[in-house]
Records
---
Amino acid sequence: MEFDWPEEALAFRKEVSAFLDHELPAWWDIGVNTLTAEAGSPHHEFCREFCAKLAQHGYLTPHWPAEYGGREAGAWELFALTEVLSACGDPRGQQYMNVNWIGPAIMRYGTPEQKRHFLPKMSRGEIQFCQGFSEPDAGSDLAALRTTAIRDNDEYVVNGQKVWTSYALTADFCFLLVRTSPGSRGPTGISVLLVPMNLPGLIARPIPNIMDHGFCELFFDELRVPVSSRLGPEDDGWAVAMDALTFERIGMARFARALRLLDELIGRLRRSGEMSRPGTAERIGRAIAACHAARAVAYRVIDARARSLPPGPEGNVARLASNWAEQFAVDAIFELSRDAVETGSLADGALRSALPSGHATGSVEVNLGIIAKRLLGLKGEA
Ligand SMILES: Cc1cc2nc3c(=O)[nH]c(=O)nc-3n(C[C@H](O)[C@H](O)[C@H](O)COP(=O)(O)OP(=O)(O)OC[C@H]3O[C@@H](n4cnc5c(N)ncnc54)[C@H](O)[C@@H]3O)c2cc1C
């Protein structure tokens, strides 16, 4: 068994870490979850500008093919980048969706015009997408979605509603799942549309929430979009969307961020002389162990990716392990911080960041169902 990172990935990790140390401003707070940054907030504006800077240095889409603005960096290099960015609160903000799966989906399914239109702008960090999947009655059971797009000559007329659409207020386009075959049910009759957010007939309304996450609901009322905005075949968009999501097998390296937060906690406890309190080191040690276990599972998935093996349920295990590691860390930070319940404390930021991780991109229960069925061979629904 080989435990070493490839040389080029190690060098890349060092290079990007040095870049972030130099470029992230003093006010940048790793305790604040940038993914929850609201539209117009300094954090959000900063992330948008920072993405362009990352792009200039080749750190935004290094894994993309050269013709679309990348350099075909390998799976390990990409994961080194993910770890380093996650550890410091991911200053890419909402761009992580573009670079990880929306861009690759356009590469695979887009027309030449769509590729020319979207990919260069994405790789320069100039445009942002949101993901219009969930509906009030279609979350985990996404195939129950009801938003329709009915063909009228060379246009689709869209009607319906989406919910929990992250960052919709700051997005330029929506990667939208709609039902194009009237009366169809389940995963058939669905298509993907790439919809500009500024069209009449589309309203985005923020949903206030305890995490300050940029959630919105989207309302479509006779929205007209050209047929040329469809990505992939008509009525077979389910395959496009599911295929796109396999590009995003692990998601954020939440364990890397948790380790960084635990480091911060240890520094604070040492300075206040509380590190030697009975049980403190053990509590932190357990959380660190959970993070390293999550890292080991993630590396197994990256190893498979590096060897071009098909995605399996190990990705679901890695996601859960990372969520749980983060939860362990947040619990430790809460228990051991004197200011835990104060707004803006390390514990407050860590909790806000960790709260939604068991729901976004597949809930814990749904992931467990997939593991039970596909990895353990248990019978039942998943
Ligand atoms: C931070 C965050 C960001 C998000 N961003 C977006 C976004 O940008 N775009 C978007 O479209 N959506 C987004 N979502 C929505 C997310 O995809 C849904 O929350 C998720 O699919 C679950 O759907 P639901 O909330 O409707 O819950 P439901 O599907 O109604 O589930 C409710 C409960 O039932 C459980 N459950 C459901 N089905 C099963 C099953 N088969 N087996 C066992 N238990 C089950 C779930 O685990 C959950 O505990 C986001 C969610 C979060 C938390």
---
Amino acid sequence: MTGHMAGNNGLLAALETLRRQLDHDLFPLAIGDVASHRRALKELRGQLDDYLLPRVAAMDAPLLAVVGGSTGAGKSTLVNSLACADVAEPGVLRPTTLAPTLVANPADEAWFTRQNVLPGLSRTTGRGRGEPGTLRIVTADTLPPGLALLDAPDIDSVVTANREIAAQLLAAADLWLFVTTAARYADEVPWGFLRSARERSTALAVVLDRVPPEALEPVTAHLTRLLDANGLAGTPLFSVPEVALPEENARLPEEAVRAVRGWLAEIAADAHTRAQVVRRTLSGALDSIATRVPALADEADRQRAGVADLLLSVESAYGAAMATFDDGIRDGSLLRGEVLTRWQDFIGTGDLMRSLESRIGWLRERIVSVFMGTPPPDTRLKVALETGVESLIRSAADAAAERALEAWSGMPAGRDVIERAGAVAAGRLGRASSTLPDRAASTVRGWQAYVLDLVAKEGAEKRTTARLASFSLNGAGLLLMLLVFSSTGGLTGIEVGIAGGTSVLSQKLLEAVFGDQAVRTLTQAARENLQERVRALLEEEAGRFTSLLDGVGPPEEISADLRRAAQAVRDYRGDIDRPAPAAAASWEVDAPAAGGAAPAPSYPVDMP
Ligand SMILES: Nc1nc2c(ncn2[C@@H]2O[C@H](COP(=O)(O)OP(=O)(O)OP(=O)(O)O)[C@@H](O)[C@H]2O)c(=O)[nH]1
Ligand SMILES: [Mg+2]
């Protein structure tokens, strides 16, 4: 569109910005009433595309009056009768109309055939009922220019697609011509639509169709009361009598639709009146953005909070696993069973421990001989330790996986993510990953290498002493590992019991070699290194959960952007009230139709 209503550029840009932000997947997770939020988002996108953007871009484009209502109410018949042409297809089967037909004066055809309004519907022309998903456009020069009629599918039949397209079409309308009958006027579904017309201040007229003569007065009175009660007082109400038709699906006699036809013609004839109808519906739709968009932004925030909750529950499951592992390496439980047996083999005899306290001097000799002895039983002790630590890691990872899966299963959003991952993946999630045993083994071996290296460096510093010249690194390394697995750790005093004895012995032995301060430092370094490695491993494990949330949830700044965009629409809302520049008075409609001869209709000027 060129040159139309340049005064709208600010509003148009604000709407375009808003529209772009609505492309984000704002509600990926099952949080709250997500289905209705998704629907609201879809509706808003639809209304921007179908109506707001094209309308604001061309305020003087012809009016679109959508004829909507219950199936069999006589909509298609009414459209034909109003257009004085057989354009729509009425029928006896319910529902008859499956695809919308738009009838326009030939002068307005171009506006509707170009994908301005309702761009998602591909255009068809010619006769027939049209395919669902299309918009059939026909012309009739018996219809005045400036106002097109759209025969919509019904709003309440069993055909879901009909109801959806009807809602979409009504959201794209400048004016609703709502058709009901004496039999249907109190139904719930139509009133749902009428109330939404009220909420959005859509320009509306109601046609009570097919009224038996005797019902005309009471039904009109009751319907008027219902309109009042529903906040729609003052809505133009027309009645069309049920007439005997000369043949099936014929048009109604002219006098039956004269009032409606005259009213529409008046609106069509006057550019000023058309503009008022357009502005009324447009303002309502624009105003609704001020509440609909922030509501979506709130829900987008809840989605992001939901993602954060899911991440937090994984973090806490794996944090707890890490704590369990920490306890497991400190509480001495590793120093029982196989490790203890191997330790006893390694050190030679169980008696040794008992005599340890008083015989530290003797012990020193013993160390040297143990460390020099070949082949050392230290390999078996090393393996036993390895196995012990590995199984500690595995059980921590299993517990964390189970806990995280359980936490997610307890949240709708979590169930949603798990479901999307697929049943097989979900089954695996509840346990440590299949590669964990291998990775745990190499983690422990890596740590053991680190400990040996640590001891070697410490030993190198002490090498000056002849006592350590022949010191066995492997032996010292093993002792240090054992120290790591006891709560005493060289730091918290002497434990009782066999496990404690093991660590006390280790500690004494090492202190004899390196000195007690060095042993404290070495133990701490060794323990921290193991914790770091295991933490990294568990983080990888947690990644199986957290990676499912990668890119899920709306981007961080989207809510603020949405609110800003809604505010911008509000700021520029006044654009639509500016009078059109004189040079761009009317949408490709040349003078005759817009000649101001016809008296201006009272509607919508008098509307409340
Ligand atoms: N006798 C008589 N029949 C009418 C009148 N108005 C409509 N009909 C018939 O009622 C049937 C339904 O009318 P339609 O115009 O197809 O109704 P509709 O609202 O378009 O229905 P859907 O497309 O299913 O939503 C048709 O067979 C019409 O010929 C009337 O005033 N008198
Ligand atoms: Mg129909």
